[in-house]
Specification:
The longest helix has 19 residues. Helices cover about 35% and strands about 25% of the residues. Strands 1-2-6-3-7-14 form a six-stranded mixed beta sheet, sandwiched between helices. A four-stranded antiparallel beta sheet has the order 4-5-16-15, covered by helices on one side. The chain has a four-stranded antiparallel beta sheet with strand order 10-11-9-12. The protein is of the alpha/beta class. Helix 1 crosses helix 3, helix 2 runs parallel beside helix 3 and helix 7 crosses helix 9. It contains nine helices and 16 strands.
């Protein structure tokens, strides 16, 4: 593997801005990803179009065994390069999406290019992970069911791979009251904003900090004018948890919410978005990766559990062993401080190559 070549590929990807919401930019970046992948893997990807959005897949051999999973969309709006330009200084690379997760894609291609055979390998790179993978989720889950293991090239956490991720659910609580003049006859109204206050407290009380379950009211709205009893209100909640059991408990509880005010009405929409990536899903792969790291002279491989979700949550939820955080070493995801440690790219690609080899050999 060659660091100069890696940096050149990374520069090409980072300067191809790809905000999830801009389909033209995402498609242009897909072309760059496809070209780099074809150069290293020896074949062009299958371009999968779903609802006007494209995802890229490379498949090798008749019997898939391991899927390498990642995304090439970013959270950064078009034009961010003018404020956060691509640069490399003292082995630190910066630029929008460099850490999350374009360096991981580069490491993936270089790792696979070093292997004598790719039979049994599937690479799936999607373009909508940063907005919840609405068009690629079914594709990811279907592919995950066909392989023995999934390796996710999301960025590492201070160098540690991610052996557990919280699941997440998202709910919208709509509240209907009754409008009335706030000065002339407020008693004729049913105040949806007051009901909203009751429901905020009710959902907050569902959290269980000891179990690591958070229920966060995130966006609220309600009312129309200052002199009108509010007839409508709305509450959005972000829920995170470590276990499927907790996800089910919260789901039952939120759907069972009842009005505190007579004559107000509540409806709940939304639900689980990603199931938890529990440590039982990753333990065998982490053990194997730890062995590869030690035997390759890369040192002790650390692991961690994180609150954020990824597409690895989907693959773990369908029952496929999944190890996440095998991508770049650096920091500042989604922030102006986003960066990658260039000197760690070859070691991480070496680890990935060794892990893929062990899985293909039946080591799982």
């Amino acid at each position: 593997m060659d660091k100069k070549s890696m940096v050149a590929d990374l520069a090409a990807l980072v300067t191809a801005e790809s905000p999830s919401s801009d389909l033209g930019a995402v498609d242009a970046c897909a072309d760059v990803v496809a070209d780099i992948g074809e150069r290293h893997l020896g074949s062009a990807p299958e371009r999968i179009h779903i609802d006007g959005r494209q995802h890229l897949r490379w498949s090798f051999g008749a019997e898939p065994k391991v899927m390498l999973l990642g995304h090439f969309d970013t959270v950064w709006p078009l034009g961010t390069l003018a404020e956060l330009p691509w640069s490399v200084t003292d082995n630190i690379a910066t630029g929008p999406g460099v850490f999350d997760m374009k360096a991981g894609i580069v490491q993936l291609f270089h790792a696979l290019a070093s292997l004598p055979s790719l039979d049994g390998v599937v690479v799936l790179l999607n373009s909508d992970e940063e907005i919840g993978s609405p068009t690629s989720r079914a594709l990811i889950e279907e592919q995950a069911r066909q392989v023995d293991a999934v390796l996710v090239l999301e960025a590492a956490a201070d160098g540690a791979v991610k052996t557990a991720r919280k699941g997440m659910s998202l709910y919208c609580v709509d509240i209907e009251g009754r409008a009335a003049h706030a000065g002339l006859e407020p008693e004729r109204g049913v105040n949806a904003v007051v009901e909203l206050a009751h429901q905020i407290q009710a959902v907050v009380e569902l959290a269980d900090p000891a179990a690591g379950t958070s229920v966060v009211p995130s966006v609220i709205s309600g009312g129309t004018t200052t002199n009108t009893v509010a007839a409508q209100a709305q509450l959005w909640c972000d829920v995170r948890m470590w276990s499927a059991k907790e996800q089910e408990r919260i789901d039952r509880s939120i759907r069972a919410l009842t009005p505190a005010l007579a004559e107000s009405r509540i409806s709940v929409s939304g639900g689980p978005n990603r199931g938890p990536l529990e440590s039982v899903s990753s333990e065998k792969l982490y053990f194997l990766a730890h062995q590869v790291s030690s035997e390759s002279g890369l040192g002790m491989l650390r692991d961690c559990a994180v609150g954020g979700a990824s597409d690895g949550n989907f693959t773990a939820a369908v029952g496929t062993p999944t190890l996440d955080g095998l991508g770049a070493v650096g920091g500042g995801a989604h922030a102006a401080t986003e960066h990658v440690e260039i000197d760690q790219m070859i070691p991480r690609a070496t680890l990935l190559a060794g892990l893929v080899t062990r899985i293909l050999e039946g080591g799982l």
